[in-house]
Amino acid sequence: MVYRGRFAPSPTGLLHAGSLVAALASWLDARAHDGTWLVRIEDVDRPRCITGADAQILAQLAACGLRPDAPVWHQSARNGAYAEALQRLIDAGWAYPCACTRQDIEAAWRARGMPRTRHQALPYPGTCRPEQGGLRGRPARAWRLHVGRIVAALDLPVPLHWHDRRLGAQAQDVACAVGDFVLKRADGLWAYQLAVVVDDGAQGVTDVVRGEDLADNTARQIVLQHALSLPTPRYLHTPLVLGPNGEKLSKQNGAQPLDVRDPLAALAAAATVLDLPPPRPTLQATLHSWIEAWGQRWRLPDSAPRRAADGGPARSLQSDP
């Protein structure tokens, strides 16, 4: 299998220390397997995107020596592909319109004696499923995936099992833990789950390396992959960088934009999280050494050892910026 990996930042702000960990890990995994590294700008949530942030993110990556091997994709240019995928699911009877607000969902669970606790995401109770009466004359707000129908039709195991290259064996009963999740939002924007699955399939992504905070999305994406007859990539979820409050460092909790005036220092901080060896004197030498270290730890069992005429890394690196 020819390796194809990707880094998919959202331009709601610039890269920070946490997002550089995921970028570096995905780049190293691609290089360690002589593969292709893609960058995809996940800008479907247009109201939250910052004008020009995509170009600045690419500049931050380039300053750190992380350059994509193919033209960058923008999800905002992919509306037709997402619409086609949704229509396929509708035609199969695996997607349905939903009229529920968040308040409706909370009210449904309170009526069952299960009020929401703080930070808890309630699974969708199935109020608008066709077999439960559908919209009942209410206007449609969103489109949802009918998880139960897909699991039954495709005979998927319950719970769904998969293997994470770092976290090990994983399992989730999607219908119980999440319920019928959204494919197209009430504001007309495409949901992350649909967009990422369609694009990973279209770009031939074989390996997803991303932050551990996204591990919980994996089962939903695997269900969608089965529903759309797309292959399931291998997954590796990286450790998180935590903020002063002990929560994941993010734009929402005040993460500062990555300072790439000294890219080696920025990368060294990310390397510490990934348990990589100390940096070398130059950026290029450092990246070479980390490719070898990553390959020794994370090379896939069906992957041949890296080869190069001079005994060094098989894929050359561009010169230090």
Automatic annotation (TrEMBL):
* Cofactor(s) needed: Zn(2+)
'HIGH' region: where is this motif? 9-19
Q: Which residues bind Zn(2+)?
A: 98, 100, 124, 128
Q: Where does L-glutamate bind?
A: 6-10, 42, 192, 210
Identify the domain of life. Bacteria
**GO term, biological process aspect, one:** glutamyl-tRNA aminoacylation
One GO cellular component term: cytosol
Is the Metal-binding keyword given for this protein? yes
Record has Transmembrane helix as a keyword: no
Q: Which Pfam families match?
A: tRNA-synt_1c (PF00749)
Q: Which family does it belong to?
A: Belongs to the class-I aminoacyl-tRNA synthetase family. GluQ subfamily.
Q: What does this protein do?
A: Catalyzes the tRNA-independent activation of glutamate in presence of ATP and the subsequent transfer of glutamate onto a tRNA(Asp). Glutamate is transferred on the 2-amino-5-(4,5-dihydroxy-2-cyclopenten-1-yl) moiety of the queuosine in the wobble position of the QUC anticodon.
Q: Which HAMAP family match?
A: Glu_Q_tRNA_synth
Q: What is the name of the protein in this document?
A: Glutamyl-Q tRNA(Asp) synthetase
Q: Which gene encodes it?
A: gluQ
